[in-house]
Design a protein that fits this description.
Elements lengths: L20 E4 L6 H6 L3 E4 L1 H4 L9 H18 L4 H5 L8 H5 L3
Antiparallel strand pairs: 1-2
Bound molecules: zinc ion (2 copies).
Length: 100
Amino acid sequence: MKSIIQKNNECWVCKSTYGLHTHHVFGASNKKASDKYGLTIKLCLMHHTGSEGIHFDREFDFVTKQLAQEKFEEINYESFIKIFGRNYLGVTFTEYIRGR
Ligand SMILES: [Zn+2]
Ligand SMILES: [Zn+2]
């Protein structure tokens, strides 16, 4: 499915249109569901797996997860928590990285 988070085909961070990657907001076992519900964003190499990339920046990662949950809940009647296994909206970043 097309992204429900982002319309433009450009890096989410720097708006570059060169060498874009599709980043699944929820990876690992939730990668398929991310695809199914359009919870993906486009990122250039640097902002994807580079040193400033989302895969190395937990706060950036968390913010996109919160946004993805909001967008999901705007258009789906299904339970986000049931599908993705947790709630990202009720917690702060500090609580999140402490594993609460
Ligand atoms: Zn970029
Ligand atoms: Zn990624």
